[in-house]
């Protein structure tokens, strides 16, 4: 077995030991939430690269950085959550993730439901 295969087996063994709740906390915020942000921002206006949940799980820093850069292009600051959801700020005021999505859509004159995953695929 190659080193790569051994490493993958170790990762998979560790993942099997984690509960769903623990997996949700990986990657700052939840890995699904962070990946959903990149997909949303990409679909909305190409504001960042697009990542899936698996990439966010295994490369959290890369995906978090990309999401934060995308949000910053429209004036929203994101603080990655360590043990929970990410925190979103507009003009220094904390807003919900849903409010951040609405603000972004309004800024570009788009509707969430008209985006490819707008019917819930962004893990709102």
Short description:
With about 120 residues, this protein is mainly α.
Can you walk me through this structure?
- About 4% of the residues have low confidence.
- Helix 3 crosses helix 5.
- This protein is mostly helical and 124 residues long.
- The chain contains 6 helices and 3 strands.
- It has a 3-stranded antiparallel sheet with strand order 1-2-3.
- The chain is elongated.
- The longest helix is centred in the first third of the chain and has 15 residues.
- Rg, please? 16 Å
How much of the residues is beta strand, in percent? 5-15%
The major sheet is characterized as: 3 strands, antiparallel
**Assembly context of the chains:** single chain
Order of helices and strands: HHHHHEEEH
* Count of beta strands: 3
The proportion of residues forming helix, as a percent range, comes to 40-55%
Instruction: Please mark out the parts with pLDDT under 50 across 5 or more consecutive residues, or reply none.
Output: 24-28
Distance between the termini: 40 Å
Structural class: mainly alpha
């Amino acid at each position: 077995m190659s080193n790569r295969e051994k490493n993958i087996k170790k990762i998979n063994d560790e993942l099997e030991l984690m509960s769903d709740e623990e997996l949700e906390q990986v990657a700052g915020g939840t890995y699904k939430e962070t990946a959903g942000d990149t997909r949303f921002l990409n679909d909305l206006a190409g504001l960042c690269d697009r990542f899936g949940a698996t990439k966010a799980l295994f490369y959290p820093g890369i995906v978090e950085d990309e999401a934060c850069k995308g949000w910053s292009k429209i004036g929203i600051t994101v603080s990655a959550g360590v043990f929970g959801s990410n925190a979103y700020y507009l003009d220094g005021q904390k807003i919900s993730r849903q409010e951040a999505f609405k603000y972004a859509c309004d800024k570009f004159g788009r509707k969430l439901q008209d985006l490819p995953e707008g019917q819930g695929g962004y893990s709102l």
